[in-house]
Amino acid sequence: MIGKIEELETAFDNFAPSLPDPRIKELRLERMERLLAHLGNPERSYRTYHTAGSKGKGSTSAYLASLLSGAGRITGLYTSPHLFTIRERFTLSGEMFPDKLYIDVCNMLLDKMKTFSLPSSLGSEKPTVFEMYTAYGYLLFMEYGCTDAVIETGIGGRLDATNTIDPEAVFLTPVELEHTDILGKTISSIATEKSKIITSSPVFISRQRKEAEDVFLEEAGRRHATVHLFRNEIMDFSSSTEKDGEHVSFTIDGQKLTLTLQMATEAMAENAALAILGAERLGFLTDEGLCRVMSTQLPGRFERRNINGALVVLDTAHTPASVKATRDAFFSIAEGHPVLIFGAVDGKDIEHMIDELLEPFEKIIISKPGSYKKSSPEKIFSMARERFPKKDISYIESPSEAFDSALKLSSDILITGSFYLGAEIARLRDGL
């Protein structure tokens, strides 16, 4: 049991890791169904909306939650991973719930777990940490009295712990090569894993590579789901990054919408447009919802800070396409001689991330994105030096020390490459 909010994260530490036992992955859904049944199936007490994709599913989820809240819905938002605090995973449309509720629901869940175990045939008898996070989010939303909840998948979709809901709609964001050791080594195989969250409910599909879109359309056909394609239903789309945000305009059914978003890059603008299309087609698009979309900000998604007079942009991009979009957006607002702090965990397409990201920077600092996931920063440093031998590239293992060094070099700093890099920088945590 816990007594204060600081203990919330450690309350889940005693549960099973997700990776060592392969049965956990393959039997995930049966494991989750048993756990949720033990809890009284809290996920059935509100309407749900499910999102999956390689990039953009978190921001699409946040935009969708803002639109639901703008329509007067009490909306829970479940995303992952968190950047600075575990509470970021479970919010009231981006706003924190009262600390007492987080604590009370955690204690309720821990109490219920005293009389629960999984059969050994399903892998570890204890639920995994992510299974517990998911169950906790569902329970938290029920206890608060949410009418709706937007649920982001973790990795993949088919065997994801979140694939235990019966959603009102499904949203599929762009597919890229990521988690290839788990999801497959081609766009088609990764899309197949993510497509398995499609049900008979309406499905909204962002701009995709053809091989991913083909997989999604085939699965939607099997499920007899109504399909809404970004490329067919969102017309005259354009966006540009300005100092006051991302300026975006597009047309749906002849109605032109013009917005300025807090989170920059064209990708964010596309995610917002997809969520708005969903709100319009599902009947909850309101002016208040659009206002909330424009003020939506997730931690680490092109998040702009002013620290010691310096423009600091923190972005969790970790694929070649997303770091390119972040780079372009950053240089549209940066001045002088910007500094890049870059770090990435193993398993990512680091070679192409380096190629896309480093070219326009004169000063680059390679750092280690924490220890939560395995990384090889010295190898990245060598790779960067080999590709760009004339650039000023240094290696500072500690992200906090790398950041302090960058502040001495420039008034414009971009931190990107991993969800875990920014989380390790104490100055950014202190700025919350």
Report what the structure shows.
With 432 residues, the chain is an alpha/beta fold. It has helices at residues 22-26, 28-38, 57-70, 99-113, 129-144, 180-183, 187-195, 210-223, 230-233, 266-282, 287-295, 320-331, 350-357, 377-387, 399-409, 419-423, 426-430, and strands at residues 47-52, 75-78, 90-92, 148-152, 169-172, 203-205, 227-229, 235-242, 245-252, 255-261, 303-307, 310-314, 339-342, 363-366, 392-395, 412-416. The strands form three sheets. It has a seven-stranded mixed β-sheet with strand order 3-2-4-1-5-6-7, sandwiched between helices. Strands 11-12-16-13-14-15 form a six-stranded mixed β-sheet, with helices on both faces. Helix 3 (57-70) packs antiparallel against helix 11 (287-295) and helix 12 runs parallel beside helix 13. The longest helix is centred in the middle third of the chain and has 17 residues, at 266-282. The protein starts with 21 loop residues before the first helix and ends with a helix.
